[in-house]
Structures are given as structure tokens and as C-alpha cells.
């Protein structure tokens, strides 16, 4: 049976996927680079560097310029998360985390963001998670399985005992590559490859997930 849940953060537990988008949009506008919400779809769950490479397209920049742009985007993003409070948790998140905890399920965070730990603390859920795998934990970004494998290791579980909760296509692909089950939050066009697809975390219960994953509850 399932013994661990690995939660992505941005776009799963809170609306920071939107904050990442706005920070990139601001940078792109300042640089005169074409970018919009539609183009941002390709950036969901993607690392900071890869996101920037996507936005600049064929334009050439020096490494120093790239670094400066990544720092600038991060500054905008960090400014935007300063006001996050537990109120910013998506509906249903605290209920699910609490239920999993009470059921003895291990909970890990599996986010590509170097800011994930700050967001978790600001959301007030640090006490509900057993381990945090973030943007500093591994080299290879999603869709490589490395981050989720690292998270599973941190909570002492084999990959096939873990379920990943993700809002990004690359995240679901990473979960599959890691040999884990997956719950996709969002539209089928984004997370249709997941074992279970849900619109959000409202009213989500462990027994239902286990049944849908065809696993006997322990
Ligand atoms: C997550 C987000 C991405 C973000 C990446 C890196 O995967 O979904 O939008 O680009 O983390 O975040 P960071 O805070 O390290 O720039
Ligand atoms: Mg995400």
C-alpha cells in the first residue's frame, strides 16, 4: 500500500505558480521578450534556468546577463511571496495533509524551487512535512526522476510506496520515471498522464485515492 505522499508546491499546495508566471512576465516585458500566459504553459514546473532559456528563445546573452536576469526574476518572485500566510493554502490542502498525517502516511515536499522551504514555512505547514526536497537537492530537473527519488529516500520509502501530487506535465512525467504513482491536479491536457486526475484538493480523502489506485488500505 501507499506509505508516502510527495507534494509539489507551486500550483499544488498554493497559487505560487501564478506568482512565478507574473515574475517572468515582468522580466520578459522589461527585456522586450515576447511572452504571455499561453507561453507560460511550457514553463509550469520547469527549473529557473530552463524557464529563462525558453523565454529568451534564439536571442543570445552572456552567462553574466543570464545570471542577472535569473536573479532579477527571483527578486520579483521573492517579493511576491513575502505576504504569503496559511490563508494562501489552496482549499482542501490542510485537510488532506492532516488526514494523511493521522493515517501514519509520510509526507515529503518535492519542488524544483529554491524558494520551496520559505513557501512551506510561510504557509505554516512545516510541522506537517517529514522531508523537503527542493531546488537545491538534486542536479537534474523534472522530468528527471531524481528529485522525487531523493524525496522518497528522505522519508525512507521505496518509490513504489509513494504517490506524487503534481500540477505540471514535467512533474507527472518525473513521477512516472521514478516508478511512483501520481495524482495530477488540473486539466487533462496538462496532467492527463497521471493515474488520477483531480481539479483541486477539495474533499480528497485517502481511502478514495487508495481505491482509485486499486490499493488495499492497510
Ligand atoms: C517550480 C515552479 C517553477 C519554477 C521552479 C524553480 O518548479 O513550478 O515555475 O521555475 O520551481 O523555482 P525557483 O524558485 O528556484 O526559481
Ligand atoms: Mg507545480
TrEMBL record:
Keywords: Magnesium, Metal-binding. GO terms for molecular function: beta-phosphoglucomutase activity; carbohydrate binding; glycosyltransferase activity; hydrolase activity, hydrolyzing O-glycosyl compounds; magnesium ion binding. Substrate binds at residues 8-10, 24, 43-48, 51, 73, 111-115, 142. The keyword Signal does not apply. The active site is at residues 8, 10. Transmembrane segments: none annotated. Coiled coil: none annotated. This is Beta-phosphoglucomutase. It comes from Chamaesiphon minutus (strain ATCC 27169 / PCC 6605). The lineage of its organism: Bacteria, Bacillati, Cyanobacteriota, Cyanophyceae, Gomontiellales. The chain holds residues 751 to 968 of 979 of the full protein.
